[in-house]
Amino acid sequence: MKRTFLLLAPLLAAALALALAAQFWLRPHVEEQLRRSLAAPAFADGVATQARAREVVFSPFSRRVLARGLEMQALPPQGPVTCHIAEISLRLPWRALLACTPLRGAILPQSGMLPVAENVVLRNLRIRTPRSKTGVQRAEISEIRAQSSLVAALLEGQGSLEPCSLLSRISVAEARASFLNVDIPTVSRPEQIRVREVFARNWHDRSLEELTLANLEFRVADREVLRLDALSQHGILLPGKVLLRRFAEQATLPLPDRMAVEILAGEMFATGEPLFRELRLHGLTVSTQAGPAELKELGLDWLSNTPLRSSLHVSGFALPLRLFTDASGFSLPGLDILRLDGKIIVEGQGKDAILKKTVIKAEGLGDLRCTLLTSGNTRGMNRREALLSQSYSDFKLKYEDRGLMARLALATAPADMAVSAFKAGIAAICALDTPENRAIAAALETFVNRPGTLELTSLPGKSCRPGDVLDALRAGDAGALVRVSAQAGDTTLDREMERLNAALKAQP
What's the gap between Cα 50 and its chain centre? Predict the structure, then answer.
């Protein structure tokens, strides 16, 4: 027994020495290093950020750091910004731990990324700016990695918080924030944003593999304006630093220049790789004075920018038509809610040319299929300028009527004059006596008499601008633009109107 004790004594003494060293040397050294790093000012765009913590505790054996009462403050030109975190806990990886000791120079590599924190948990985060208040009940980060040069600078009190620079110098494996609240107080219409959960995965430099939001709610003056069940994005790639700085400059203005923001957004969407590869939205409800507008599902796949290839699909879109009735007096008799599903496919066709394919199915109205080729450089233009400057060709449209013509007829003219009113419009756009106009007029009259299927095709090899279309229609020369064919339906327009009228009268 005595011999065994003598053999184990050195080991026990070494273990005791290590425990004492960890408790009485490593612990206070790491805690002091963390306090000094927090106290040193960090700069972003020339503005210093000061930080302090009420308590910093390090446990050598678990390698966990616990900071309570962390406060940060900055004084940018727009007004003071403060951040308060009730508690932060994290575990230091071995290399990050040793970097907090005099061994830093030997431990940190000259370049590259290294883990700096694991199992990070933040509780009760609050951020206040002159324009808003933000709160997060709990946030979790699985692992944070940072460039060794950034780690060294922060530990030496020379860190920079410049956002665009930080993007390229840190990475996050997974992050989750629960119960996010944003309050934007105003005199008469305070705004609130509530999000139950935000999740992000594999963020490094400009790329983010996944971002999801669950249960988002937007309120104005304590009235719910928007509700969203879920939103997810995959394959996110943020714009370059120059574009991000320009966007940040606009975002900090009291009244951003809407046209400048629109042009900047166009540059972001058109430059380099797609900003995201996939977007999915579920359960969107927007409150309006006429009732809720709803969208069951939206999906956007952004495959490439060079050439441009993307597809958008919409399912379960429902919009109260009283919105248009109240604003303009226009209505579609017998239809209170516009319900439709649709899909749009966009394909680049060489330099500055885009082919768009659209499919829309509207309940109680009809089905539409359309293709259109747009050409022209629209960089630096807003939407109106782009619309007017582009040329259009290869237009094809196929429409199958399922009630729209009867509703339009009842809405625009007395029942006994509807067909005559439509035919007067046909005569106006086909007034020029040419074989092409006569053929168009005959096809349109067939469709008006017995709504069925209508097809329009632009002239082969011919392109035009919006002004050209208006000029041709004013001159009564629709034949200079398109060719038209029609297939008669089973029922006359008069008969469809009678049925719709009878159904309307039968309603309570």
Answer: 33
